[in-house]
Amino acid sequence: MSTTLAITGDQKYWSQEQLSALKQLGLNNASNGDLAVFFHQAQKTGLDPFARQIYMIERGGRYGIQTSIDGLRIVAQRSGEYAGQSGPFWCGEDGKWVDVWLAKTPPLAAKVGVYRQGFPEPLYAVARWDSYAVPNNPIWRKMPDLMLAKCAEALALRKAFPNDLSGIYTDDEMSQVDTVVIEETPKPQKVELKAVVNTPAETLSPEEMLTIMEDMEALKSKEDIRAYWKKHEKILDTTIPGSKTTLRELLLGMVKDLNG
Q: In this structure, are residues 128 and 109 in contact, taking their beta carbons and an 8 Å threshold?
């Protein structure tokens, strides 16, 4: 990251260079108050907004601050008091917790415990399927156990480190909120993406594929999807491991979901 974009400890507000960069990230309509809150959270957590470790997103005319699950993990680790986790665990209708989910149907709940130095017991948090799942979302359909576990982990991390993480939510936790906002907003004209024919697919490692899938979770509008499509055309014909679906088909499905 360029030193002109780095947030310093004695800084009081965004510099002009940083404000220009934030506008390029889609925050040109954010108010000074919203930007001030965003600056406070970025400086407090030490997460880099220009590397998309933390970002601000608009929903229904209001801005909220989000991060990835990795962002929450970074903040917990930097505290010096993070001592690991227990889980994740999943359960179905029988209420019995298991450490691997093998059923073909999604789990009804996920549980994660976070250990913090000075606490005699882990701080557990439970995420219920009905509270967080977006069944029509391709990623939730493909990896229901992983997605629900990430929500439970985010809840547990905030529970263990409230001073550091209060008010910061992950993309996964807000997915259902996005669905409500989309359903309540008048539907725009349908937009179709033009597939690039015979685009060569690059060879991706499992770690790179997981990162790509997590990046796709942050795509909340057709504008985001079009920008992502244009930037990653060369890998869109890559097949998602364990399925016959390509990244291109996944993006098209996300557009279809937004079109209703």
A: yes
Name the DSSP letter for residue 14.
-
Both tokens of 183, joined, read 């359903």
Q: Are the beta carbons of 46 and 72 closer than 8 angstroms?
A: no
Query: pLDDT tens across 170-205, in order?
Result: 877 766 554 444 344 444 444 344 443 333 344 566
Give the strand pairing for 169-170 and 62-67.
parallel
As a whole number of angstroms, the distance between CA 59 and CA 12 comes to 27
4: its two tokens = 């002109």
If DSSP codes are grouped into helix, strand and coil, which group holds residue 172?
Answer: helix
Task: Judge if the upstream peptide bond of residue 186 is cis by omega within 30 degrees of 0.
Answer: no
C-alpha torsion 183→187→188→194, nearest 10: 70
Q: 190: closest CA among 252, 256, 136?
A: 256
Listing from the earlier edge strand, what are the strands of the sheet with 62-67?
A: 54-59, 62-67, 169-170
- Higher-scoring residue by pLDDT: 208, 169: 169
Separation CA 106–CA 18 (nearest Å): 42
Contacting residues for 230 by C-beta, under 8 A, at least 6 apart? none
Cα 12 to the center of its chain, rounded Å: 28
Q: Is the pTM of this model over 0.70?
A: no
